[in-house]
From TrEMBL:
Domain of life, per lineage: Bacteria
Transmembrane segments: none
Cytoplasm as UniProt keyword: no
Essential cofactor(s): pyridoxal 5'-phosphate
Stretches assigned to the Aminotransferase class V domain: 24-393
Function: Catalyzes the removal of elemental sulfur and selenium atoms from L-cysteine, L-cystine, L-selenocysteine, and L-selenocystine to produce L-alanine.
Keyword hit for Transmembrane helix: no
UniProt similarity note: Belongs to the class-V pyridoxal-phosphate-dependent aminotransferase family. Csd subfamily.
Taxonomic lineage from the root: Bacteria, Pseudomonadati, Bacteroidota, Cytophagia, Cytophagales
Protein name according to UniProt: Probable cysteine desulfurase
Enzyme class name: transferase
EC identifiers of the protein: 2.8.1.7
Amino acid sequence: MLDIQKIRQDFPILNEVINGKPLVYFDNAATTQKPLPVLNALTRYYEHFNANIHRGIHHLAEKATSAFEASRHKIQTFLNARHVEEIIFTYGTTDGINLVAQSYGRTFLKAGDEIIISTMEHHSNIVPWQMLCEEKGCVLRVIPINDEGELLMDEYEKMLSEKTKFVSVVHVSNALGTINPVAEIIEKAHAVGAKVLIDGAQASSHIDINVQALDCDFYVFSLHKLYGPTGMGALYGKKDILNAMPPYRGGGEMIKEVTFAKTTYSDLPYKFEAGTPNIADVVAAYTAVEYVETLGKKQIADYEHELLVYGTDALQSIDGLRLVGTAKEKVSVISFVMDGIHPQDVGVILDQQGIAVRTGHHCTQPLMQRLGIPGTSRASFAVYNTKEEIDKLVVGLERVKKMLS
Ligand code: PMP
């Protein structure tokens, strides 16, 4: 059993007072808060071994390099990747998807090839593919969903053909919390010879990820949704595929030799890591992953599920409130709308009570169009949240109703 009160002490920000009220932070799907070990790792790096990595031979450069590379090993284990060089550091999920769309997509996809995404994608898993389609003449196809917010797998199967060259879908929806059957999606895509990218931005903090068991070709996530720093993420790619892909960005670090006549590129993973990376945040990512591993993914998921069940029951009992996204397989994300009240007003009034939720389209405008709503209010729970905080949300929402309906 997790000691939630003890865990809360690891997160200094939870002591903040917002508008005279103790902070209730329910915007974890946007970004999680950071525990002291992660904050300390950042400070320790800058205080004790800040240096540029890989090229220096002095003590600090060696120390920074080994901490940076230790993080790569940590993430390799976290995802169960076969080879450490299959882990590429990025600026986050968005950056990882753009890397694949630009490097793999521009090289291996051609006019008429089909790329499949789904209705519930985040804009960062739509726009890079649209840009590619515009440039190369590929065709974007979209898996529809049912009213509960689940993918229509029959429709997906019907879409697959020898024209399908790439499938890019979200593991867990940020707007609805739906957990998608990604293993099945991958298997079916592979059966027609397509490559698959999984957007794991929301999955990494809730679900055990095993890229070898999934057999995905690419997996991307952001550390800031996993109790780690912002502006830092990782792309996993199968080694043979990454090796066949050209570099995404050119510059220092990613080269073997540069002459004005010709440049040769570094081996994996450095081929994809041009320029000075986000060293401090990569170093602190080690600690974020370690923090999650120490608590235990399964324990975190079980506790969050308890919050999800409790929160779903509590919110459902509010008259005039409708849940959006009621998939059978869900993580601890509750999206909802209230009769006659704009989501933004819900957010503003809750904020006055110190409660942080996200409102709007959650970077999933096509999904909102499919659901026929402009947006939702979304409460998303992390391991440090409590049932008492959910009770406060219920009181807050009753107040919203009293003030606005
Ligand atoms: N995909 C999903 C499902 C997300 O929730 C997010 C972040 N909201 C992203 C992609 C983009 O992540 P980032 O902004 O860290 O690049």
